[in-house]
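Here is one chain, start to finish.
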Amino acid sequence: MSVEMWTNKQGEKVHPDMVPFEEKLKTELVEKLVGRAVKGVSLLSSFKESIVAQIDGYMEMMRETYNLDPMKGTKGNITLQSYDGLKKVQVQVSKHIDFDEKLTLAKEKLDEYFTLKTEKADPEIKTLITKVFDVDSKGNVNAKQILSLKSYKITHPMWLEAMGIIDDAIEIVGSKSYIRFYTRESVDAPWQNVSLDFAAL
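Its structure:
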């Protein structure tokens, strides 16, 4: 009968009699725990899918109640709270934003604006604003910083045109839903998160 060989970290085949007992014990433990973790991820994934389906079903019913198209679905954030106010479920949708080639045009327009305002513009502000267009090591810009430009109360036509170009350059490349559960002892007590995160336990 052939013996099932073990494989070491160098990819070499080793006879089981040559594998130390503690290595066998450790390997058995690691494989068992990792196997349980993989099953746990699968269970959590199924759990999340079930939650999303149930919330979608509830929102479809509510849309029908208010004579809205039930098939359009709900794309935004949702908070559902129990009648007694002691439990709630929050669904938060995070959109992943990217920009197309028009972002370069927006930067050019801002450069024109700063050239026009050179005498009056604070060079530190100019550096701060143009720095948001810097790319990281992966060639990506920081979408949050780019969109923060729209909070400036500047009404010059060139600035507004640049902000319009940024709007046109926005691309939604995906989204992710986060589901959180909360409980509290009374309606006056703070909410406590029901953690499903190992690191938070």
